[in-house]
Amino acid sequence: MKNIYRLIVMSILFILPAFVLLSAWTFWELSGERYKRTIPGNEIYRAIEKSKKKTNYKKLILGDSAGNQIFNCKKEDPDSAYSLACNQGISMVGHFLLLNNYLQAENRPDTVFMLVNPITFSNNLGQVYTYHYFLKPFFTEEYIPYMSQTVLDQIHKIPRYNLCQNPYIKTSTRAWNPPANPSEAKYSFISPIAKEYLSKIDSLSHRYHFELKIIPTPLPNSKREKMRKIDKSEYAGYNFKPLLDEYLSNLIYDDDRIFSDGIHLKDPSEYRKHYNKVLHVR
Fold first, then answer.
1. Digit-coded pLDDT (tens) for 98-134
2. Phi and psi of 249, rounded to 5°?
3. Cα 208 → chain centroid
């Protein structure tokens, strides 16, 4: 009996200080928002921060991590475009929220470029990345009002979605994710949620009088056949159809060896001059 009592006391003496230290660390991380600079996907928090600033830029870039390689959102160049490119895990919903932030800050771009890999259009918030890269930054009181019922229904299928703002989870330096929840829908290119929010982005272009252009990032030659199988009828009847038709007609292919994983370039600087010309920036 004494041994059990001693074990309980020792356990308490060990667990209590560990809990206090963990709580203090979490509070320290939250109070200064330091986690936003250290956790995986910190470029998303940088993009959110930048999206709320008033600027004089007339060209804005939205994009995934492939786009971020070319126009890094952590850098600013007054002679270039203003980049909010970050990560495909934020989905088209996240790109809409960043753009809306930028416009609500009274910025008035004349051109908004979406610089993305085709895989970005397939995100239906059912990826293993959704919890860490979308829910943690965006499932908040500030952004939930902009989420449609379709988006909320998909979020509610994610295990433990309601814990994403828990301080211990939100500040975790590991990209912890519950099991993925693949969408029930089948599509070759663009997901239902992507269509809904690309429509919203297109509507903003008309409301705020800017030109929207969707620009492809380079693809390896081995993806040619897959791209040829895209079913364009998936987005027939949508206002953004001409934008995606142009996007698909301008796909760029290059040697597989220049890619690190089939999506990201080993040396993005090689393509920077090309995209400077496409976007008419320096």
1. 999 999 999 999 999 999 999 999 999 999 889 999 9
2. -80, -15
3. 23
Using CA atoms, how far apart are residues 48 and 257, in angstroms rounded to an integer? 33
Cα distance between residue 60 and residue 166, in whole Å: 33
| Closest CA relative to residue 218, chosen from 269, 156, 154 | 269
Amino acid at the residue 208? Y
Q: Which pLDDT tens digit goes with each residue over 8-34? A: 545 454 554 544 444 444 444 444 578
pLDDT tier, 173 (very low <50, low <70, confident <90, very high otherwise)? confident
In angstroms, rounded to a whole number, what is the distance separating the alpha carbons of residues 103 and 106? 5
Q: Give the pLDDT of residue 79.
A: 75
From CA 134, how far away is CA 148, in angstroms rounded?
15
Q: Report pTM.
A: 0.88
Distance from C-alpha of 94 to C-alpha of 91, rounded to nearest angstrom:
5
User: What is the C-alpha separation between 139 and 147, in angstroms, rounded?
Assistant: 9
What are the φ and ψ backbone dihedral angles of 210, each rounded to 5 degrees?
Answer: -120, 160
Nearest to 131 by CA among 195, 179, 86, 92: 179
Strand residues in 177-262 grouped as ranges (E): 211-216, 219-220, 253-254
